[in-house]
Amino acid sequence: MVLATGFGGYFGSRAAAERSPVGAPESGKRRAGGGRTRRITAAVFIAAGLGSSATALATDPMTVYGTAATGPGCVLVAVGLALLARELLAGANLVLRAIPVGKRSAAGHLARINLRVAPERIRPVVTFLTLFVGVAASTLSMQAIENSANGADDSGGIGQLMASINYLVVGLIAAFMAIALTNNVISSIRRRGKEFAAMSSVGATAPQLRRMLTWEMAVAVLVSVTVGCVGAMLSVIPFAILKKGGAAAAFAPVPYVAVVLVGAVGSLLIARWAARGPTAGAATAAAAIA
């Protein structure tokens, strides 16, 4: 009887431990279903974007038609990839299952469970950050290629105007991303008040909860910047061939590093700031529940 009880408790606790403290994982699975239309739409956007970028090869490199074809293509590819945020997180979970990162710490273990069982909590971050990285990195890369191709011959005129417009576009996208990301992160964290209270009642501290959120955000950032940069590079390759005669210019690291630093640091700082209030008040909520 004692052995049966022990084995039953052990295997039962294993099933419960694999669930997220967010609760109601079935609702997340229901939401994950029915995404066929979204995936088809994403594929159409990506195909249209790559096709638009490829048409730049048929234009004269001395005109602005190559830019006019590549710019919209970059945006379409970024939008298509952003629509696949749910699938990107599913892929990240498959990778996390194969590597031991975060398994040894309580915060990392909880973050892995949340990402697997309730990825919808972090999906908006992947959506907005992928869009930002894809559009901003491709725009800056195009501008760097344009500057390199023109050299010192373009001292003003339309080249200077296009550069100013491109930098303005990147600034506006960054501002939009910051506002949207801040709103989504704050609302998502505040909705998790009961989860934090439940975890606090079983011994989790506010720093541990913040580290858990940092783990989740780090995974979202890594997925977003990787996919966003790959999409930007693929979109810009035809433009690089048109302007420089080869694809190497599309892989110049400076535009991508700059965008990744801004997106990654900004996202992590927003998450840390948004988590301070809810996690600090988790102990009070836990006491109220008890």
UniProtKB/TrEMBL annotation:
<feature type="transmembrane region" description="Helical">
    <location>
        <begin position="218"/>
        <end position="241"/>
    </location>
</feature>
<dbReference type="InterPro" id="IPR003838">
    <property type="entry name" value="ABC3_permease_C"/>
</dbReference>
<feature type="transmembrane region" description="Helical">
    <location>
        <begin position="40"/>
        <end position="58"/>
    </location>
</feature>
<protein>
    <recommendedName>
        <fullName>ABC3 transporter permease C-terminal domain-containing protein</fullName>
    </recommendedName>
</protein>
<keyword id="KW-0472">Membrane</keyword>
<feature type="transmembrane region" description="Helical">
    <location>
        <begin position="165"/>
        <end position="186"/>
    </location>
</feature>
<dbReference type="Pfam" id="PF02687">
    <property type="entry name" value="FtsX"/>
</dbReference>
<feature type="transmembrane region" description="Helical">
    <location>
        <begin position="125"/>
        <end position="145"/>
    </location>
</feature>
<feature type="domain" description="ABC3 transporter permease C-terminal">
    <location>
        <begin position="168"/>
        <end position="271"/>
    </location>
</feature>
<keyword id="KW-1003">Cell membrane</keyword>
<keyword id="KW-1133">Transmembrane helix</keyword>
<feature type="transmembrane region" description="Helical">
    <location>
        <begin position="64"/>
        <end position="84"/>
    </location>
</feature>
<feature type="transmembrane region" description="Helical">
    <location>
        <begin position="247"/>
        <end position="271"/>
    </location>
</feature>
<keyword id="KW-0812">Transmembrane</keyword>
<dbReference type="GO" id="GO:0005886">
    <property type="term" value="C:plasma membrane"/>
</dbReference>
